[in-house]
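This is your field. Have a critical look at both lines of this record:
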Amino acid sequence: MLAGAAAVGMGNTLMSASCQTADNIMLKGNINHSLCRWTYSYMGLEELCLLCKELGIKALDLIGPKDWPMLKKHGLDSSMCNGAEINLVDGWIEPKFHPQLIKQYTEHINLVADAGYKNLILFSGNRRGMDEETGMQNMVAGVKQILALAEKRGVVLQIEVFNSKVNHKDYMADGTPWSIELCKQLGSENFKILYDIYHMQIMEGDIIHTIQEHHQYFGHYHTAGVPGRNEIDESQELYYPAIMQAIVSTGYKGYVAQEFLPKKADKVASLREAIKLCDV
């Protein structure tokens, strides 16, 4: 009996370990999971790469060329490349920045393509009193000067939408209507919107309907809890499993990147829970 009990106990232990391993890596495969590097910057990059592999996260977001060798070492993708931008406020709506931006984006489009990656982020920049129509015309004129190269090299330029109520005061691309019109005027499959769910919940709400109606313009997704930009658990107002199901239903095959700032003591547990919630 004692031997049998020991065997059962050992079996339970092994089963528990097996379930834990499966829980970490056996995901459904409908969502390609990514993580924005900056939100877990307290960890070294190699340590973070190892954690991502453990949790079934396939890529890191907002990573520039100097860090790509580390990603390649660990078999991770760079799901949204950065480093070509000047900053978040000096962007494409202002013609005086175009010469510098065109130079930097021309270089980075080639770097992204040569590395075998696909997505490169860009920003409208702040209004500084500029009206939206002028900003639109200026951005179209500027981006058109790099768009042919992006098309040739297979790189998708993606404008991130921000909220201008809480985090990015005065940012022009603070809603989907303006950003969708920008896509229409550029008229290229190599220019898309990085649809940040956190930012657009603050500005517009109606997240699932927006995804259903306009997903053809969305090339990438970011998550975070509202309010506060923290964990995407039951402490906030969005229900991410339903949002992820809406994304999957559109046929989207790209990445969904976690971009919440963990405030709980066990930050790894927060990330693990976020992946589980989004793995529909």
